[in-house]
Amino acid sequence: MESGLPLFSPDTEFTTKFHRLKISKGNFPKVYNRIGNGIIQFFIPEKFDIKHPAIQEYIKKTLIEVMRHEAKVYLPKRLDELAKKFGLNYKQVFVKNAQTRWGSCSSEDNINLNLHLMRLPDHLTDYVILHELAHTVEKNHSPRFWKLLGKMTDNPQKMRKEMRQYRVSGW
Questions:
Q1: Distance from C-alpha of 145 to C-alpha of 149, rounded to nearest angstrom
Q2: Residues 6+ apart with CB under 8 A from 38
Q3: In 37-147, which ranges are E strands?
């Protein structure tokens, strides 16, 4: 698609923490989806062009809603587990569909986490959560911040570099 959005097709490999995408073209009466047993299944009639923006938008919106549901269940629980493990405190957690950031920490120690974290490998999701938890102690990216983060996770600079392989934008 010219807009730069990912083009979803039957060959698309897309997974979240708990689901994988499956797109089927066939003799279906209409475009519809079914979500369950770890699969987000889309059914596209043969006569429809899967590249049509309305179909692509339908797939995208469904995937975002699935990720939003997953994220609201998984991310606060994981944040709480990691905060307790390292003796860190935060006030509130919010799950958002941010366009540019994986996470943020406010001056009041409220943590925002992006629902697109559900697309990342577990170690990178944990890295983002730990990064934001470290900001509850160090509000900047000073050497003290990186030293603190290094006590919570192995080689944070390497993970930071690995995070650059993933993009929030394009959704």
A1: 6
A2: 18, 19, 20
A3: 39-45, 93-96, 103-105, 111-114
Tracing tokens 């470290």 back to the chain, one arrives at 134
Written as six digits, the tokens of 70 are 């997953």
Give residue 167's pLDDT. 87
Quote the pTM value: 0.91
* Statement: residue 151 has pLDDT above 60: yes
127 close to 150: Cβ distance less than 8 angstroms = no
Q: Determine the Cα–Cα distance for residues 50 and 64; give it in Å rounded to an integer.
A: 18
62-65: list long-range contacts, CB under 8 Å, 24+ apart.
62/33, 62/35, 63/14, 63/16, 63/21, 64/97, 64/115, 64/171
Is the sign of the CA dihedral 82, 84, 87, 90 positive or negative? positive
SS3 39: strand
- Rounded alpha-carbon distances, angstroms, from residue 95 to 12, 15, 119, 150: 26, 19, 14, 25
* Encoded tokens for 66: 């699935």
Q: CB 43: neighbour CB atoms within 10 A?
A: 17
Instruction: Give the Å distances, CA to CA, from 11 to 5, 70, 125.
Output: 16, 24, 26
Task: For residue range 44-87, list pLDDT tens digits in order.
Answer: 999 999 999 999 999 999 999 999 999 999 999 999 999 999 99
